[in-house]
Structure prediction request, 701 residues.
Amino acid sequence: MFWLRSLLYATPLALAFAGTWLFQRVSELQASSDKLALVTAIREPVGFLNPLFPQSGVTREVSDLLFEPLLVRDDDLKLRPNLINKWRFQTVVVIRCASEEAAGESEAMIRSGEYLEDGLRAVAIDRQGTVLTIALEGFESGIDQKLLSNFDPENLGDYLLVRLQMKHSIRESFETFLQTSVEKGQIKMLEYRGDTGVDLFVRGDTDLFLRELELYYESNMSLSPEIELAGERCHTMSHEMLVELRGDVVWHDGTPFTTKDLIFSYQELTRSGSPLPLGDSFWFVESLEAMDSSRLVVRCRDTPAIMLESWEKLPVLPSHLFEESGLSNEALTSFSEYPVGNGPYRLIERRRDGGALLERNDGYYRALPVEQYLSYKKFGSLEATLLALRSGQIDAIVPEERFSDWAERNPGTIRQIRGMPRFQHFIAWNLDEGPIANQEVRAGLAQAVNLEQLLRDTTTEFEQPVTSLFYSGVPYCDAEMPLPLFTPRGAENRLDEAGYEMDEASGMRLSESGEPLEFVLTVNEENPEHIRLANGVAEQWAALGVTVKVERLPWARILSERLSTRDFDGVLLSWELPFERDRFTTWHSSEAGEGGANFCGLKNDVVDSCVEELRYEREEEKVLELTERLQREIARVQPCLFLCDSGRIISVRKDGIVVVRTGVGGERNVVPLGIGKSGLESSRPWWVRKEAINQEKVSPE
Prediction:
């Protein structure tokens, strides 16, 4: 259900928060603070500052300055360490040897390297009695058999492996079984697999033991037991991800950032009913266990290639602030007013006008930003804005229409910067009902849309045609999505072929039985741009004889009465273009049921195959082929009508801001303000007013 995070919507919590006057207890900022700050003139108030909620514009900008992610994208959009400093994937093979002498001999052969052929690398070895535990680097398929093939067969134990699995905790019921079991002596070794499973290595009269075990659990069927005979086996294998956090990160209140925070955030955000439902993104995780304050082990039930992408989108919260309350609405609302983050800036004040004052976090673990203060301020009028601009009291501006008109009449004063497109706007079709279920109808509707007439730039946002399902420039996709072009004649032919021909008398397209081609397009009544887009496409379709009713509803009703129940013809939505390649929950047929994220109801074998393989494929060329094939099939089937991507527009004083970054050796490098593949957001902490730096001192200290 991570799609809920990406869709632009208002959750019940956000609605409650919106009803709380954020600024009741704040005081007006002192003018002296602004003189020391890089000042941004804003139009709308800075909203709730919480990484759990979908955000855009200035609120997103401020939130990114306050909170650090576990992993970051570099200039080539590849994942790099951040709060997570290091990670290692390892396969743990536990081998039961025939005797202690056999275990000792095998250990010696491993340590000498004789059993580590074909590129095997042991990162840890342990021996306890007859049991050898070897941690091998990586998740290579068949790595356990490759290791065992080098062992002397005489040194390996001879056991029957019985695997017992339950839906809930297994320990209590199994330990009760052991207390009364007559045949338990045949269990030579056992190993718990998380909270819900146990591996039993059995030798002797195994039939008697198995019958006893089956009878016990047949009388306790409410536990949902599953007993599997895995055959003769002397070993088990598990997969682990070892994670090491930076040890120098502190929250803004001085509390160290530790594994406790990461585990708390993971548990809260993957549980049922979470305010940010990430459970589907961590299907591969069996358990997390802290080794100490900076290291933890992630035990995995699966080993997809996109594991790091899941950790990338997990926000971390300061667990010490939620120990008593948990992530309750009240606690999250209070936290969102004055959040405690771990980023390069911290919030110190909210303005009565909806603005905010941020101060440099001198406890930040990386090189400190040059600017000590960032001020977000709402000016009362265009005249006040222009006066502040001319006097050098404004550095960046979220423009409104009158200001943009002034800037056009006064060239050379302002530089307009267009960020990277971050949001995608589309109509999600219900593929199960009505005329929209006909692929020819969907294709005809797509060819009838003239984007040149529909798309526009506003003072704060630009719109451009959709080119991809993925964020622009990501390394795993280099092909554009071949979406239908505007071809009115082709649209008419498609609709004719679908069985809806134009009736000249009524001006409507009718089926052979006289049914008109009509449907309802649902739109968020609180989103003016969505309403404009919906009315625009409805007008263009009307010219072809298609009747469209634009239904305006509150977002809460769209979520509960339309999307969740799939009771709609088409819904105009927006989602954030994420960096990751995993699109399983959005497009896979298993997610097409009620409550699933595939709310279009798409069921397509080609798409299923692509999104399944994308989760596991590690070869770069094959990944590129899969993303190209996925986009080609989505474009052909048209489960959505992709309207546009949009990005942010911000204005800055011409030649007034530069970017100052600190190099590896401590030197500060001054570069012009610009955007990279990851957008303006990645450079925002390092914006500096030219007058705030002494160029002669921009050197190693």
